[in-house]
Every structure is written in structure tokens, then in C-alpha cells.
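Task: encode each sequence below as C-alpha cells.

Item 1
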Amino acid sequence: MAQNIVGDCDWPVVVIGGSAGSLSVVTGILSALPMPLAAKIIVVLHRKNTSDIILLALLSKKTALPVIEVEDKEELQPGHIYLTPPDYHLLIETCNSFSLDSSDRVHYSRPSIDVTFISVAEMFRNKVIGILLSGSNGDGAKGLAYIKRNGGTTLVQNPETAEFPFMPQQAINLNCVDMIINGNEIGNKLVEILGKLSISPES
């Protein structure tokens, strides 16, 4: 495997959280990502408790980048998109590995967006770009605030363009949001943000 030209903890990490009404925005974001990609992408969606290969297949069709449903101890690499599996919380164990956790639901959800956002922020701090999308409960708002407090960049879907505005609005109410972006513009904005970072892809 090619060696990273920077340390594992130095790569930007984009963590995207969404629930009801967010899937079309997620696919739009993935479609906008360039290849090669100098970032690690993590997607946390509220899902059914059982395995759903349809979701993985759908996301894979929207990008040429590898899309992987995370297994315990999965390696976290730049240029890959990682999907949280059903019925597990997703945590960052080291700068380059995940762990899965089956503890109690948070906001009635497992996976919980808050749990992953907080774990990512604790490990990667100012390297994190957190994005919170449409959803009908408050999961993700406190996690996004935690990303902000640790020096990360925070975006939410404009509630006016969200099918379920409650989730992004909760983050806005916490005054932790750097940018409020229409759903169909988030992908391009993310590419613009990543383009300003001085990290080169693996060679």
C-alpha cells in the first residue's frame, strides 16, 4: 500500500450525519467528490436494524470512490467513503481505525450521529468538517457543537430546503454552525472547502 505523505491524523475527515429526508442530499454530496480525494469521508445515517445492502449499492453508484460499510477494526484511509453499519454506534479507535459499539441508543438511534461526531472530533479536532442534514429528531446537534468547540468546521443543510428541518435547526439553535447551505449546494461547497486545504492525495 502507498505510504501517506502526511500522518494519519493529519488528513481532513468529513463526517456527514442525516436521518429522514437526507438520502438524496448524501448522494448529491458523494457525486460531487473528486477522485482522487484528499480526505476521509464518514457517513452516519439512521437505518433499519437489519443489514441493507441496497443502501450500500446505491451510494456506490454515485461515486467512483470506494464505499465501504464499516466492520469492527476497519482501517480508515484517505480517499474512501465509510458507511456506518445498522444497529451499531461508530467510534474512532485510532487515527486510522474504527470500532463498533452496541451500547444503548442515543436519541432512539443506533447508530447515533452524536456519538460518531463526538468521537471523530476527539481524535481529529480541527481537521474535521461536520455536516448535518435533514432529520426529524435532535441527534447530531450536540455532536456538531462538539466539533465546533474542538476547532472543526460545521455545515448544516438549510432547514428551508430540508424535508425534515428539525435536525439542522437544532444545530442552528445551538449557535455552532459555520455555514447554512441549501441541500443541492452542499457537495460543491464541501469540494471548495477541501480544495483550500494543503493536503495532497496518496501517490
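Item 2
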Amino acid sequence: MTTGLLLLHAFPLDASMWQPQVGALSHVVPVVAPDFPGFGAGGGDPVEVLSMDLEADAAARALSEAGIDQALVCGLSMGGYAALAFWRRYRSRVAGLVLANTKSGGDDDAGKERRRALAARLLAEGNGFLVESPPPLLSAGAPEDLWASVRATIAAQPAAAIASASLGMAERPDSTPDLAGIDVPALVVTSTGDTLIPPEAT
């Protein structure tokens, strides 16, 4: 049985965000960092609503294509939502979980409306406004060159893909009931510098 590392990316970025980790770890363990549908070079065409289950299915296909049976699944932010969906759908393939700067709960009604409004604006205007004013993906003291990289990565994503992911996050289920049943090693990572998902939510 081949065991590897599965890295699931954050919104509204693609799998290129994991390049430093892939470069550092791939000589130690097989590493797969797939693009979700519509994102990056490997995601294909956007779907109308990118559910967390679709993200999990894309990740499972990427593991199979790489010949990996089981993986330590690491999800950052939206990738954490996908990791929890992967656990529900493919638990026999999960050797462990890393849930980084993410949360188990679903959105409240106001949060769902914000995501739907963002999707509508993206489809109407394109992603330029999001490039100019990206979500607070980095801490307040992050260097400008890192912000430039984030903006460039967002700019490279089709507006329709970002919109579909926003809609998918709005519809994601509450994963909190699943937490007590996780029976593999799990690490939860959070940060006081995270303004999107603060430590108490994680």
C-alpha cells in the first residue's frame, strides 16, 4: 500500500499555493496537490456549483492517478472543508488529517448570502475587484511580495471558478457531528493572526 500526502488548497487560490511544500517534501513522501475543478492548470472547466463533495472526488481521482492508496490529508481554509468531505466519502483512504485555519461549522444565513453575492458579482464583473481587494488571506504583517503573489494567483483563476467555489462553500454542510468519529491522527492548526477564521472558530 502506497501512502502519500494530499494538499488541498484555499479559496480563491489554486494548487500552486503549495509549491514550497511540494518542493520541500516530495523527496520524502509522494505528494499530490490537485487543482479543484475550474482552478489552475489541472482543474478543467468550472462547474456551476463547486461543492465540497466534488472537491473531495477530484482529490480522490488525483490520488488514484498518482498511485497513492492512502494519504495524510491536509486542508487549508476551504481545503479544510474539502478534507472533511474527503473523510466522509473516502475514510478508508485517510491515514491522518491536518485541518489548518479552517472550521467544521457551516455558514449562517448572513454568511451564505455574502458568498452568493460575491459569486453574483464575480459572474457580472469578473475577478478584477477581488484581485485589487483580496480577502484577508495573510496576516496583517505579511510582506508585500507575498501579497503580490496572492493577487497574481487570484488573477489567474477564472471568475466562474471562484464564483462556483463561493457557492459551494455557502452550501457546505455542518461537519461538526463528524468530528467525534474521526479515528485517525489529526492535527488542528490555527493562528491569532487569522482574521478570516479566528482560533476560537477553528
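Check on item 2: The mean pLDDT is 96. The first helix runs from residue 19 to 25.
End of task.
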